[in-house]
Amino acid sequence: MTESLTIDMTGGAAKPIEFAILVAPGYNPVDIIGPHTLLGVMPGVNLHLVWKNTDEVMGTPTFPTRPTTTFDECPADLDILYVGAPGHAQFTDTETLEFLADRGSRARWIAGSCLGSLLLGAAGLLQGYRATTNFGAVHFLPYVGATYAPGNVVEDRNRITAGPATGGFEIGFRLLQDLYGDEAAKEAILQCEYAPEPLFPVGSPELAGPELTAIAKAHLEPSLAPLTEIFEKVGARLGVAG
To answer: Per the domain annotation, does 149 fall within a domain?
Structure first.
């Protein structure tokens, strides 16, 4: 992919597009790199890597990141609010949840990938919406008032969520399509040469089968187990039965 996408801007927005990505301690860069790249190189996009302050945060695994914009400095009216998988602390962090709830109440698009979908839900932004998240964590969606829907990417009104690591790119292509049109999205897909061909065709529980899926879930369990108590409390706070 070239450093700057050469894409016809005909039909694009007349005013700058305000795009905010949460980069909290413990976040997973794999979830944000797709939309960060796809939208970040577009003319007219103001890209904000947002956190409480602009001190360096450490992504997982070992990915130092410098936020560019604080919660207070982030534009009040966003075109896109995007969240990848965060550290567990963010699910109960009042300042983070209040920021997401506030900006999400006005954003044109609210997007989340992997456990980022659940963080949006913890901020009250998925109640009454269809959504998805990592296959090992879909059972937490009822705690935030969301209905699980299968698929790499699930779009419900202005909420768009994804489970797989490739889902960030697929969300990015959809946002490009909405903001700049079909041809811009097609060209971005080509410039990225986005045509996944996995080494083994086991990239979903349905493809992997029950045995491998059970093994993968067992390996995920230590990292997801602490979320059970967290989401019971989230559900109680939101008045939602899990």
So the answer is: yes
Q: Which of 24, 38, 81, 114 is catalytic?
A: 114
H-only helix segments in the chain? 29-40, 94-104, 116-122, 167-180, 182-191, 205-208, 210-224, 226-238
Count of domains observed in the chain: 1
Measured distance CA(40)–CA(47) in Å, rounded = 6
CB 53 within 8 A of CB 80: no
- Rounded to two decimals, the pTM is 0.93
The answer to whether 154 and 17 have CB atoms below 8 angstroms apart is no
Does some domain include residue 6? no
- Number of Cβ within 10 Å of residue 167's Cβ equals 29
Taking only the tens place, the pLDDT of each residue in 185-228 is: 999 999 999 999 999 999 999 999 999 999 999 999 999 999 99
AA letter at 217: K
Active site residue 114: yes
Q: Count CB-CB contacts under 10 A for residue 100.
A: 28
| DSSP bridge partners of 80 | 19, 109
